[in-house]
Amino acid sequence: MDLVLSAPLQIPPRVKRMTDADFEKLLPEGDAKRVVAGKCGYCHNLLPVLSARKTRAKWQETVDRMYDNLLGIHKPLISLSDEEREYNVVVPDYLAKNFAPDSPQDSRVVSQWFLRREGPSHLNRNLPGTLLQGAAAKYVAMEFTLPPGAAPRDITVDSQGIVWVSETNTGKLGRFDPHSLTYRHIASPPGNDPKVQLNAVTVDPLDQVWLADDGPNARVLRYDPKSGEFDSYPMPEYPYPVPDNIPWARIGTLRFLDGYVWATGLISQRILRLNPKTRKIVQYAAPRGSSPFGLALGGDKMIWYSARIGNVVVRLNPGTDRLEPHLIPEERSDLRGLAADADGNLWVAALETGKLLKLDYRTGNFTEYTPPTEDSGPFAIDVDTKRNLIWFSEIFSDKIGRFDPSTNTFVEFPHPLADSDVRRIAIDRTNPNRVWWSSNRGDKIGYLAVVE
Q: CA–CA separation, 18 vs 109, rounded Å?
């Protein structure tokens, strides 16, 4: 455990996260308050709005960009109605008046910032106030700093224990050898557009590395570690006309399942299936406004995905294109990672409600579990299928959690430092006690290893 001894001795109590209703109360009165709360608050909470400080022109750019998203996600791309055109003027005026560059920050809003510009309020702020006990104390945490600006978005581990990461800012594939502690960049092949935007990454049973270049190039890449060569698979065009400034190929998750490469189109509202042998990509339309994110193969051999905004876990039958939604009990859960356990049941992380949910693929029934840390922010999920242990990241509490369904017990392992911003995780199949993580904003990767 990396305890910063130079920090103040008294660790402050953890700040409770505000609800959507709390954020709405902090919005100043005005003609556009209802619109901001309703439209902006539909896709995300209002913290980014309350925190931002921009000029009128910058607010207009933001509103235009968000409206493009809103139109593309929630309704057919048609001309704005008169009412919406008015919103497009009134909303930037309201935001510029109340959240200008020189507007003071509300201390209640600052307390909610996930990552503070000046660093964490206390370097040990998410550590427990007492010494760890029992299983929670039996682990080792390692952290590795990557070159500045790497921004490792996603992470995966091959059958040799080699770690692969997608560098969002550089457009390069990163390879980390934990045996020699060496890290190297691998440049992506040139695309039609010079901007390479890597996101999701996974490996197949032959240790071929698959990654999504989900920016303007809209392609899936395959990297062969033995030959050092890439292959490129262009994604199908989106079936609707779209604005030029929106990354419509945006891939939430990439998985190699049942011989195919599967991907969730987070903004393009579709599921993609790539056949590596024929190079053919088939797309399955998801309901507009659902924003598919996590992806898994259930015990019924069907594809299941979680929907961020739709608040559902959906069963996709690739043979019939039929979608069968399963509604989450709590509204606005903001579903993220999804994985199947050893029995083929689905586990999903609910970011905003702080829950871990199990979906029985046979009955469609949900069972809800609450981690020990309140409002911990479950995000990514991976499963140790040999022992049927559910691992998940907690981005609001700087922890990685483990849940044992056989005993209904949680264990939470704190990260060494505050504001780790751990999102994606991957179990090392060569050593299931080791769970790797990536920190997109922190330019870091690392692992925790359970000591038995």
A: 9
- Same structural domain, 107 and 226: no
Say whether both 440 and 376 belong to one domain: yes
Distance CA 447, CA 41 (A): 35
pLDDT reading at 450 higher than 60: yes
For the chain, give the percent of residues with pLDDT over 70: 85
Per the structure, the complete domain to which residue 70 belongs is given by: 20-113
Q: How many domains does the chain have?
A: 2
Rounded Cα distance between 45 and 372, Å, is: 24
Burial of 368 (0-12, 13-18, 19+ CB in 10 A): middle
pLDDT tens, position by position, 279-327: 999 999 988 768 899 999 999 999 999 998 878 999 999 999 999 999 9
- How many degrees, rounded to 5, is the angle at CA 384 between CA 378 and CA 389? 60
3-state secondary structure of 231: strand
- Enumerate residues 6+ apart whose C-beta is below 8 A from 83: none
Q: What Cα–Cα distance (Å) separates residue 235 from each residue in 201, 221, 251, 255, 258?
A: 16, 10, 11, 15, 20
Write out pLDDT tens, residues 77-114.
334 455 555 667 889 999 999 999 999 999 888 877 65
